[in-house]
Design goal:
- This protein has 389 residues and is α/β, with parallel strands linked by helices.
- It has two domains: 9-80 and 144-275 and 365-378, Alpha-Beta Barrel (TIM Barrel); 109-140 and 278-344, no CATH class.
- The protein is built from 14 helices and eleven strands.
- The strands form two sheets. Strands 1-9-8-6-5-4-3-2 form an eight-stranded parallel sheet. Strands 7-11-10 form a three-stranded antiparallel sheet, with no helix packed on it.
- Strand 8 (237-240), helix 9 (246-254) and strand 9 (259-262) form a beta-alpha-beta unit.
- The chain is globular, with a radius of gyration of 21 Å.
- Residues 88-101 and 131-140 have low confidence and may be disordered.
Length: 389
């Protein structure tokens, strides 16, 4: 493909060639995909949500073996209470100071019992996952006390150029990152949180619409992006959700964004660290084959539809708060993995899924996005001539 010039403020901030950022998709955006996107001129981001410090350090170094271009790391920064909460129910479990010493002791009986019934419903083996830690102690679990801190320390020690928070407000860490020369990106789904992270010192705000795969909000991209742009100006904004080609990039720039945060388009790339069966389910999907559910994490997440989602949603059993719901459903998904029932697992994807029908190299996906956007922008005056009086 011919090279096209498509340079925005984002390129200067992040030191990249094109205003396209890989979404930090946990379990998918690993070193091969991250390096491929960065090498192609965008910004690759490691999806490190559940990576402990040693795994994260190894992943960062693998990226550096493949590219010397800028890249980032995305983690989750939830606010975690002492006990899980479900709609209309109390929750708890005892330990010193009211905080249980074992993760499973924090999970209410109705949700645990329903998860067990789902294993029977789908004829899954009675196996117990080693999740989140073999000891079961809360301190070492993903999103437990100290976990995010250990990830951030690793990012700083490894001198990663960009930090992204897929959930939560990075404000408590901004000064540390700034002192280390690290740029900070925060993803939001509404104007209130956009103002909050902008006021907290975030360098770039990602306005993600409800069309997006994975954790997502309630406001559509077309409505959300211009409102966030106005709310945080002159802070730069990326658009996310329903963007998978150059038309989406061009539209985002017209809405006032300085670039795009792209997930699903790269989720079906050859380099994505995702099972081919799950990639194929996305490639086979239409725009109507996703739904938003809380069953996998406790937060709203858009996934390809599957029988497990439907069974939980139809039951009326409340989901727990993040991240306790993940511990409940893990009993089921782990058993499904052991049984080879991949279709019951988490399969994040956006409503843009119907646009894709084949796996391609990430560099080709990015090049096509940039080329198509540049062509649209160049011909726009002829296609839509401005009329002046």
């Amino acid at each position: 493909m011919a090279k096209h010039a498509l340079h925005t403020k984002l390129c200067d901030i992040l030191g990249i060639e094109y205003p396209v950022v890989l979404a930090g998709m946990g379990g998918v955006s690993r070193h091969k995909l991250v390096a491929a996107v960065s090498e192609a001129g965008g910004l690759g981001i490691v999806g490190a949500a559940t990576m402990g410090p040693e795994e994260l350090r190894e992943e960062i170094r693998k990226v550096r073996e493949l590219t010397d271009k800028p890249f980032g790391v995305d983690i989750l920064l939830p606010t975690m209470g002492a006990t899980p909460q479900a709609s209309g129910s109390g929750a708890g479990g005892g330990g010193e100071g009211g905080i249980p010493r074992n993760w499973r002791d924090m999970l209410p009986a109705p949700q645990r019992e329903f998860a067990a019934s789902l294993r029977r419903k789908f004829d899954l083996p009675d196996v117990e996952p080693d999740f989140p830690t073999a000891s079961g102690r809360l301190e070492g679990t993903p999103f437990g006390p100290g976990f995010s801190r250990s990830q951030i320390d690793t990012i700083l020690e490894e001198k990663v150029p960009v930090f992204a928070s897929g959930l939560g407000n990075p404000e408590p860490y901004v000064e540390e990152f700034r002192a280390a020369g690290v740029k900070v990106i925060a993803l939001v789904g509404n104007v209130k949180n956009a103002r909050r992270v902008a006021d907290g010192g975030t360098d770039v705000v990602v306005a993600q619409g409800a069309e997006a795969g994975g954790h997502t909000g309630r406001v559509g991209t077309m409505a959300l992006v211009p409102q966030v742009v106005d709310a945080v100006a002159p802070k730069p904004v990326l658009a996310a959700g329903g963007i998978g080609d150059g038309r989406g990039l061009a539209a985002a720039l017209c809405l006032g964004a300085v670039g795009v945060w792209v997930g699903t388009a790269f989720l079906v790339s050859k380099e994505a660290a995702w099972d081919d069966v799950l990639k194929q389910r996305i490639l086979d999907a239409s725009e109507e084959d996703t739904r938003v559910t809380r069953i996998y994490s406790g937060k709203t997440m858009r996934n390809i539809k599957n029988p497990l989602i439907e069974a939980w949603e139809e039951s009326g059993v409340p989901t727990l708060s993040f991240p306790f719901q993940a511990a409940v459903i893990r009993d089921v998904t782990f058993a499904a993995e052991k049984a080879g029932r991949k279709e019951l697992g988490m399969n994040p994807a956006g409503q843009i899924s119907g646009m894709f029908n084949e796996q391609r190299p990430a560099k080709d996906i990015l090049a096509e996005i940039v080329e198509q956007a540049a062509e649209i922008i160049q011909r726009l005056p002829a296609d839509v001539p401005a009329v002046t009086s």
